[in-house]
Design a protein that fits this description.
This protein has 397 residues and is of the alpha+beta class. The protein is built from seven helices and 18 strands. The protein has two domains: 20-116 and 128-207, ABC-type transport auxiliary lipoprotein component (Rossmann fold, 3-Layer(aba) Sandwich); 214-396, Porin, CATH 2.40.160.20. The chain is elongated.
Length: 397
């Protein structure tokens, strides 16, 4: 009875002290918990990085020459972060080994390693985990066919997280056959390597540098495009589509390539129909984000202006009058082909991947064609009519 009364008194005292806790103390406790969570997240990433480095080194210089069964005897993380961190690290390590067969490690299951074992003798009774009893490890190795055990210990030393890895032979003395110590500063960002494509820190930094240098201020785009002209309903006279090959120079106006400007020149040729030339400039604005992406496509909107010249039979359809039989006869006698030079401006969108490959679609307005009887309109906005629909594929160097 006295024991129950004492327990009830302790419970009431604890509840009273918790209720009387000041708001400042509660705020401090919440801040400490948030900070602890942030440190735990960073520690987990750093531990993942060390495991990545360990397995990567085994893929480059395996501890065993052939595939070898190994018992994962023990994995420990710094005290104070709970057993959940141990489970996360163990799962990550098992995934790494499974996705990197060049390490020559084949993990064997060891349920006895973490189980609590009771060993009694004339000297006394010992209660411990199986991993702390060499006899249990040896027995686990015999049942699984493994002859080696792996120990992974994480410790925080100052501002560094240290991983100590040991491979031992499953004998009574547990002789060490391989040992490796890796450390990283907690202030160093984790590489976050892909488990399927482990690489060294130097290779990862080089890959990042290559990706960043893809954002060079200058690019040389090559465009292969086709311009289609709107037809007039009911008219038998139509303008044929024109294929254009263009090359130029593009300049980024900001480091993030949010604004770009380009100039280019192009040619078009169709046997017995026309020869054409083009000079144009464009200003583009990134609308899919604030900076170009290293992993996702980028979408640009642009406006541009161009001057084009067409020499040949195709130029006749762009003029204000339909050529008559007499006009054609005069051209044949004088051995001259019609010529048409006009200016235009564009509105369009460009979808680009890593500043290397792009697809462009645009509408083009040519005021000189407003009265051409053979040219219609794709879009009529009153004071502005768009006569041309264009599509381009771009390759940047």
């Amino acid at each position: 009875m006295r024991r129950r009364i004492a327990l009830l008194g302790l419970f009431v005292l604890a509840a009273t002290s918790q209720a009387e806790e000041s708001p400042v103390a509660q705020a401090q406790r919440a801040q400490i918990e948030a900070l602890r969570g942030e440190v735990a997240d960073q520690l987990q990433l750093q531990a993942y990085d060390l495991l990545d480095e360990l397995v990567f080194q085994w893929t480059e210089q395996p501890a065993f020459e052939t595939d070898t069964l190994v018992v994962l005897a023990d994995l420990t993380s710094p005290i104070g972060f709970g057993s959940g961190l141990d489970a996360l690290l163990e799962n990550h390590f098992v995934s790494l080994v499974g996705k990197n067969p060049r390490s020559h490690l084949r993990l064997a299951h060891c349920p006895q390693c973490t189980a609590v074992n009771v060993h009694s003798s004339a000297k006394g009774t010992v209660v411990s985990r199986g991993v702390d009893q060499p006899g249990v490890l040896a027995a686990a190795g015999e049942r699984s066919g493994a002859h080696h055990a792996l120990f992974l210990d994480f410790e925080v030393e100052g501002a560094a997280l240290v991983l100590r890895a040991r491979l031992t032979s499953l004998e009574a003395a547990l002789p060490i056959v391989f040992a490796k110590t890796l450390s990283t500063s907690t202030s160093t960002p984790s590489l976050l390597r892909s488990p399927e494509r482990l690489k060294s820190r130097a290779d990862a930094q080089k890959e990042l540098f290559d990706a960043l240098t893809g954002r060079s201020v200058f690019l040389v785009p090559i465009h292969l495009g086709i311009r289609t002209f709107a037809s007039v309903p009911g008219s038998a006279l139509k303008a044929l589509p024109m294929v254009w090959l263009e090359a130029g120079l593009e300049v980024a106006m900001t480091q993030a390539r949010a604004w770009t400007g380009s100039i280019s020149a192009g040619v078009s040729w169709a046997p017995q129909l026309h020869v054409g030339w083009l000079a144009q400039g464009r200003i583009s604005r990134l609308i899919s984000g604030t900076a170009t992406s290293l992993t996702a496509p980028d979408l640009y909107a642009f406006v541009g202006g161009s001057v084009m010249g067409i020499y040949g039979q195709s130029a006749a359809v762009f003029k204000d009058t339909i050529p008559t039989i007499q006009d054609i006869a005069n051209q044949i006698r004088s051995n001259t082909d019609p010529t048409f030079v006009y200016g235009a401006f564009q509105l369009g969108l460009e979808l680009r991947v890593k500043n290397r490959i792009g697809v462009t679609v645009f509408l083009e307005s040519a005021p000189a064609m407003n009265n051409a009887p053979a040219i219609g309109k794709f879009l009529d906005l009153g004071i502005i009519q768009f006569h041309t629909l264009g599509v381009e594929a771009s390759f940047c160097f």
